[in-house]
Amino acid sequence: MSTVETKDGQLIERIYTKNRENISIDHIPQHVLDAFIAIEDNRFYEHNGVDVKSIMRALYRDIIAMEKVEGGSTITQQLSKNLFLSNDKTWMRKTKEVMAAFYLERNYSKNEILELYLNRIYFGAGTYGIEAASHHYFGTSVSDLTVPQGALLAGLPKAPNSYSPLNHPEAAKQRRNLVLARMEDLGMIPSEKLKRMQGATLAVSSKEGEDDTWSNSYVDLVINEAADKYHISRDELKRGGYRIIVEMDPVVQRTASEQMKNGAFVPGSNGEVQGALTLMDHSTGALVAAVGGRDFKHGDLNQVITKHQPASVIKPLAVYGPALMTERYEPFTLISDEKQKFEGGFEPSNHDNRYEGSVSIYEAIIESKNVSAVWLLNQIGIPYAKEYLEKMDLKTKDNGLAIALGGLSQGYSPLQLTEAYSSFANNGSKVEAYTIDKILNREGEVIHEHSKNKTNVFSPQVAWYMTEMLQTAVKSGTASSGVYDKALAGKTGTHGHPSNKGNAHVWFAGYTPEYSGALWMGYDQADKGSWLNGSSAYPTALMKNILNKIDQQKSLTTSFQKPDGVEALPPPIQLPVINNLEGQLNLAGLALLKGTLTWTPAEDERVVYRIYREEEGDDVKVGEVTGEGRYQVSAFSIFDQTTYYIIPVDPLTGKEGEPSNTVKLSWDL
């Protein structure tokens, strides 16, 4: 047994083998074995560990969904993942899984592999292995299970909590009946018995335990980190007697876990909406909280490290940050906001289908302009943008302009985006997230200790510019949903569903003076029956709700502090609409007149007013004033008749507002 503890000595969890009873395959009924083979791997006795047909089917579904969604794993591959690998869905992990599967097939018989698989897989409610699951759900040994009961257990490993017969009986019954139908298709049960078996009650005899799952997601990451970084496997942890000192803040972790279960923030087509949240101390990389699912239990897919399409959350990282690092662009530089077609026929649309011709980078960020982001990426170049993504460990093989909108073949995980946004929060430097501070052996000796990993990405000036702009996005832009009165900067993202008008993924990513974080909502698989009917307003409001709850216990910082040596970003200018321009003439002597133009100026004294005189052909600019509503026209003859108008100008962007009404100055004889 090993323990997971905080730095101040609070015990979080013990890691040991629990609720597991090994059983020989000779004592498992054939109909139970058939059920698992039917639903998980019907060619189990034919392939050599890898089923090429299943892989091609999975690849096809991945291409359709534009991300890695289908597992395509045989029973042997699933066992190899359970024994040797982490639970993420990447092609690199898939390659390792295949190699491990070949190893198992060369060294063990099919029945040995199947027996080991059935004794190791997770069935929910803290139970591992089919014998423990049989006792937990039916109060009997696996040798006494009926065909419907065996089919129910066979349906659990795909999503143990979602298909729990105790918490979700209807979903469990549908899944069981699917297993039975597969068995009938394969000739494992008679067709005439299928309908009666599918009509059988679930016949469960246990009650779901009141296990407190608030720390499960975090401990799952700890176990993965111990294996990946320090080469201590899960099995070694269970028997090694290690003390693992972690960076979790129990107050923050428990608060986040509780709030992620809040049904008021779940905009789904059904009750299986998932979510993930990470909060990291961006000065060190210490992960203080991680929630990998709305009710995460050990053995579930940990959404903290699962990759999804990032949508507009990527814009500051892939486009605006890199652009501001050039000498050409500043926050108030005007960029295109015209509907247009780019190379390759790519024609993005703004989310509200409104286009202003040109906007500043500041406005494009606040309003999450899609066309502007794509246009700017096209200007700075995809290879240049990818250099910055790689500095933030956001590598991608994609080379299209859709990168600007988060349209990627693989996507990023909440943990990756949390790290990336730390580059803005941490004066331009991205820090690597970690959970384990140190590991001690049985003798109390420190055998592993974390060393900080920091990468310089942006200049301090660009990081501060982004902080100021992303603060405005939270206060009055696309991230304004919900209420949080203290310092918060961030960006939203919404990725549409591939087969209906709903959404597949919604995001909020950002930071406070204390934490960087990301919050994702979606489904384990966004299929035709599972979609989000809400926007990124939901994760944004939920993130603010979580921060409010944390603030009640820890008092978070009120405002960001500008670092020394950087310039503050002036507030944007709102140009006025002038519709009360008036003119007056007075004698100036010797048959000459002088005119005075007056109007109501904007409260912002930075606005420049350009005065124009109408003439045939091009109108003539005769002067300008700043911050006031009065202009003296040069002397002219009493016989002249001249028309004037005013145009307000934003000195930050150079953008002109709408012309005022006109006024004619003439001397009526």
Automatic annotation (TrEMBL):
Where on the tree of life does the source sit, at the highest rank?
Bacteria
Q: Where is the Glycosyl transferase family domain?
A: 9-183
Question: Keyword tRNA processing: yes or no?
Answer: no
Recorded catalytic activity of this chain's protein: [GlcNAc-(1->4)-Mur2Ac(oyl-L-Ala-gamma-D-Glu-L-Lys-D-Ala-D-Ala)](n)-di-trans,octa-cis-undecaprenyl diphosphate + beta-D-GlcNAc-(1->4)-Mur2Ac(oyl-L-Ala-gamma-D-Glu-L-Lys-D-Ala-D-Ala)-di-trans,octa-cis-undecaprenyl diphosphate = [GlcNAc-(1->4)-Mur2Ac(oyl-L-Ala-gamma-D-Glu-L-Lys-D-Ala-D-Ala)](n+1)-di-trans,octa-cis-undecaprenyl diphosphate + di-trans,octa-cis-undecaprenyl diphosphate + H(+); Preferential cleavage: (Ac)2-L-Lys-D-Ala-|-D-Ala. Also transpeptidation of peptidyl-alanyl moieties that are N-acyl substituents of D-alanine
Q: Which residues form the Penicillin-binding protein transpeptidase domain?
A: 275-547
Molecular function GO labels: penicillin binding; peptidoglycan glycosyltransferase activity; serine-type D-Ala-D-Ala carboxypeptidase activity
What's an example GO cellular component term for this entry?
A: outer membrane-bounded periplasmic space
For this protein, the record's PANTHER family field holds:
BINDING PROTEIN TRANSPEPTIDASE, PUTATIVE-RELATED, PENICILLIN-BINDING PROTEIN 2A
Q: Which family does it belong to?
A: In the C-terminal section; belongs to the transpeptidase family. In the N-terminal section; belongs to the glycosyltransferase 51 family.
Name assigned to this protein: PBP1A family penicillin-binding protein
Name its species: Halobacillus yeomjeoni
